[in-house]
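Inputs:
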Amino acid sequence: MRIGFVQFAPVFGDKEKNFRAVKEMLAGTIADLLVLPELFATGYTFKSQEEVLSLSEVPGEETSLFLKHLAGICKATIVAGFIERENSSCYNAAMMIDASGLIATYRKLHLFNKEKLWFSTGDRAPEVYTVRGVKIGMMICFDWIFPETCRTLALRGAQIIAHPSNLVLPWAQQAMITRCLENHVFAVTANRIGKEQRGEDDFTFTGQSQITGCRGEILAYAADDTACVLLTDIDPSQAIDKSVNPFNDLFKDRRPELYSL
Amino acid sequence: MRIGFVQFAPVFGDKEKNFRAVKEMLAGTIADLLVLPELFATGYTFKSQEEVLSLSEVPGEETSLFLKHLAGICKATIVAGFIERENSSCYNAAMMIDASGLIATYRKLHLFNKEKLWFSTGDRAPEVYTVRGVKIGMMICFDWIFPETCRTLALRGAQIIAHPSNLVLPWAQQAMITRCLENHVFAVTANRIGKEQRGEDDFTFTGQSQITGCRGEILAYAADDTACVLLTDIDPSQAIDKSVNPFNDLFKDRRPELYSL
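Outputs:
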């Protein structure tokens, strides 16, 4: 199974330009799973609720249409961040989509910093979806710091965690090693690069997108300032085996009756 | 608050020799909390249940007496691994003790490898104890790979995790950075060094004992082959603050109603 990510610098507010950038970067790429950054088409640093609302979509609108088209070209299932609107609520969300259409959306459970000003917090439990016989879960950026996110997905059977990100803190890439090691899952952390200076906010996104193996190995790793597509071939069945040695199993050895969580 | 660890190579089965080694290494040391390795007085690589039983103790026997004496000399609270016997069961345990006597024992919840042949699995939830006004929890070695262990202790208020270890895998030191970062706790991982070749088993213990700060900083780090005592001064009140920024709090932002754990 070929999995990968797109790392680039979205232009704030210009969906068409960002669609073109991603499509050009992926020209000629064939893969099974491709992960794009959080909010890849809109940018990240909002100044008002009106701005968020104006860039939001319900599934089926332009970002869905673009990704469905792109999925057909790349023969891939794609996971990518977008602003999902439902009634008057906007969510920092990711969609999983392929050439036949939308598979699911995930609404970020743990909003970071001023995202709390703009977005409603995810209101649905993280689910796992079977794509080409492989179980895939989604989480977004800051979800990484809560071990419960990845654990919940892994306990629900996820073999691969698709992890669209707009990271500004320096720790996630290293922590993803722990997440993959403690759950025996693969992870694709698709981060963005570039700066966004808008209003009083001035973010530098840290790149270093990473594909982490299900025994904590770093399988692919991007620079902190380079737009790139990285792909790697994995055997997702390795993520089914939770044994550490003949005596230990990461899931069977858990003691939920003695935890206070 | 001065906290630290003793890293050394215990001699299998010779408690008196190990007591002397630790006492000599700590001569002149004054600290508030000292952590010794897992099974520091007995060694690790057992060949029979009789051997385990013969090295086991109920609290109040020689290891407790030695540690109580040592705690008086160092003016410290000490956490150290030992084999705790209750009725016919033996536990891979740690005791917390000071000059006035035993504070508590902890029985390892996640036994590693052949430990399952020799020990009963811990049967009590991890608790937190207030020592000199600071809340301290205990976990042992392989407990590190289960995020629930450290999370449970942190949610119960632990500011410092005392982590006696006999590590043979290479990942724990890095994972403890994630554990401390995701919980804003300090951790003292006291590992042993040296080899034990007994029966068909041949273990090399990885040293690199580590004191990790409550924002994921490595505060002290030992070599992989050197017996040593390392100490560092910390402000344990830093571990009470779970905020990441004005909008985020590691505990308040959790979504337990949406996790499946």
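Remarks. Chain B has a mean pLDDT of 97. The first strand of chain B starts at residue 2 and ends at 7.
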